[in-house]
Design goal:
With 225 residues, this protein is α/β, with parallel strands linked by helices. It has helices at 10-21, 48-61, 85-106, 108-111, 124-128, 134-154, 179-186, 197-208; strands spanning 2-5, 26-30, 40-42, 67-70, 116-121, 159-166, 219-222. The protein has one domain (2-222): Rossmann fold (3-Layer(aba) Sandwich), CATH 3.40.50.720. The protein is built from eight helices and seven strands. Helix 1 (10-21) links the parallel strand 1 and strand 2.
């Protein structure tokens, strides 16, 4: 079983659909699970107690958990000096704390079998220091730092922890970002093109593969940075 957060839309949904088509068992986590055609829990990743409840349910089911993909995330495209405190707080709580809550709750399900793959999501904005994305980039920089440290903590249990950091991807997260802004970011990538969710799914499948056991604590940039 592979747990995918943010599974109702965007990258999370694309990843869940790809894994299902490849024959994996998937359990989704999303605030709204209506219309999903695979098992899913309705909860907010920023709610630590709700995530613990999901973990207890999965533990009691006895199903083997082999992977966790922390794809839930929100963006805030706003200059730092003009970002309201509640907006910044929400971005940090969902992107960083949500990743930490899920990792803390679901990793023990992998520890006991001494195998697991954890994939977290960052962004090219961390490396490029994009203006207007300070809070978003800060939350994802925290995810990268957490992932590197946690990779060392769980390596003895056969668990790898890596980050995928895409450039602009054609999902709802780009709503409100002009084509001109997107092109400026793409021009700073090594591979100068806008990628699609399927390109990210390819990288996720690579990291989930048993042959990727030599990769841990890494940040893989889709598009290059």
């Amino acid at each position: 079983m592979i747990i995918v957060t943010g599974a109702s839309r965007g990258l999370g949904r694309a990843i869940a659909d790809r894994l299902l088509s490849a024959g994996h068992s998937v359990v989704g986590i999303a605030r709204n699970t209506e219309g999903l055609d695979f098992p899913a829990y309705a909860c907010d990743v920023a709610d630590a107690e709700a995530i613990k409840t999901v973990a207890r349910s999965l533990r009691s089911s006895g199903e083997k958990v082999t992977g966790l993909i922390n794809a839930a995330g929100i963006a805030s495209m706003n200059l730092a000096l003009m970002s309201p405190a509640p907006q910044v707080d929400r971005v940090i709580r969902v992107n960083l704390m949500g990743t930490i809550h899920c990792t803390q709750s679901f990793t023990p399900l992998m520890v006991r079998q001494k195998y697991g793959r954890i994939i977290n999501f960052s962004t090219i904005a961390v490396t490029l220091g994009l203006p207007g994305e300070a809070a978003y980039a800060a939350s994802k920089a925290g995810v990268e730092a957490f992932s590197r440290s946690f990779a060392r903590e769980v390596s003895a249990f056969g668990i790898t922890v890596n980050c995928v950091a895409p450039g602009p991807i054609g999902t709802d997260l780009l709503r409100g970002v002009s084509q001109g802004q997107i092109e400026k970011i793409v021009d700073q990538q090594i591979i100068r093109k806008q990628f699609q969710p399927s390109d990210v799914c390819d990288v996720v499948e690579l990291l989930l593969d048993g042959r990727s056991n030599s990769l841990s604590g890494q940040v893989l940039h889709v598009g290059g940075a």
